[in-house]
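stage 2 :: seqdesign
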């Protein structure tokens, strides 16, 4: 726990509120508590901030109408840079602890198991696998050779993870500073994998920025699938090879996603959706069914015009047929 004033000094903030209040963590609005601090990226998120449990928020000095918010307010020049600084600070402060236990294990001598790892019954860990500190593995987990599971990841029962897969890697969260140089935001969330999950070879599943990336029960991933930070994959979904799902997307239950599909960030699909191979998903899918989205690459302005008329073709044909 740290004082608000200590945080204010770190991010060069003006404080409105109780400077001696304590802050325990950097959080999203959804998972915040009274001792959490949250970053507000613009006025459209004020409602989320007001309705959240967080006790302290970081806002831009360009935002107005903040005085009616009954929370501690830290006013900064650049909220994105403040997020960068806070992520670094709380990453250095955070440390998850688990009670280690070991029963009926088959662990290769070349595997690396760090401290505070909780391993369930009947687990197999292959050659050169790396299990970092704070990881929890359920019962009947199979870890193939050269798998890396980073700090704090939670894996359920009867999960198989095949060669070369990396779970809990840093997500692709970056901001630019005043010199137009990239700065990486440390990701403080983790990855939570349910039970009866199968993850193919050479997959990457990134940890969440603040909340966890979640793979629900019964999900199966083919080889070379990338799942970005804060993604949620619904139960019993199947994803074929070379699919990329960008950050904060939420995939429904029992989805079938064909090979080489690209899903942009913040997309939501409902349950029982099928997406054809090589499709690009650039908007939410709100009804169950089979979807295909394949168009040749072009300049974006041209692509938008083509896409508009493409969606109207059936109506145009009906109109022409009616006139004839």
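stage 2 :: out
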């Amino acid at each position: 726990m740290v004082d608000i004033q200590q945080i204010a000094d770190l991010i060069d903030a003006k404080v409105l509120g109780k400077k001696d209040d304590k802050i325990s963590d950097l959080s999203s609005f959804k998972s915040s508590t009274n001792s959490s601090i949250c970053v507000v990226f613009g006025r459209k998120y004020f409602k989320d901030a007001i309705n959240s449990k967080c006790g302290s928020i970081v806002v831009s000095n360009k935002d107005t109408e903040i005085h009616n918010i009954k929370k501690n307010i830290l006013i900064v020049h650049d909220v994105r840079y403040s997020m960068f600084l806070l992520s670094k600070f709380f990453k250095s402060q955070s440390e998850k602890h688990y009670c280690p236990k070991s029963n009926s294990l088959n662990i290769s001598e070349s595997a690396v198991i760090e401290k505070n790892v909780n391993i369930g019954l009947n687990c197999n860990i292959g050659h050169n696998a790396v299990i970092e500190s704070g990881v929890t593995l359920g019962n009947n987990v199979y870890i193939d050779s050269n798998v890396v599971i980073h700090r704090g990841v939670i894996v359920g029962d009867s999960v198989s993870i095949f060669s070369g897969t990396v779970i809990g890697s840093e997500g692709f969260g970056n901001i630019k500073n005043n010199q137009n140089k990239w700065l990486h935001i440390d990701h403080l969330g983790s990855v939570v994998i349910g039970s009866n999950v199968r993850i193919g070879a050479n997959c990457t599943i990134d940890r969440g920025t603040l909340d966890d990336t979640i793979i629900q029960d019964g999900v199966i991933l083919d080889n070379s699938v990338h799942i970005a930070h804060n993604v949620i994959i619904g139960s019993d979904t199947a994803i074929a090879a070379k699919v990329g799902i960008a950050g904060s997307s939420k995939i429904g239950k029992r989805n079938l996603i064909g090979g080489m599909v690209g899903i942009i960030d913040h997309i939501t699909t409902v349950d029982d959706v099928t997406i054809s191979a090589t499709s690009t998903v650039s908007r939410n899918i709100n009804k169950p069914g089979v979807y295909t989205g394949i168009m040749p690459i072009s300049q974006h302005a041209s692509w938008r015009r083509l896409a508009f008329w493409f969606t109207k073709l059936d109506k145009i044909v009906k109109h022409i047929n009616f006139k004839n």
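stage 3 :: structure notes
- The first strand starts at residue 2 and ends at 3.
- Residues 2-93 form a domain with the Udp-n-acetylmuramoylalanyl-d-glutamate--2,6- Diaminopimelate Ligase; Chain: A, domain 1 fold (CATH 3.40.1390.10).
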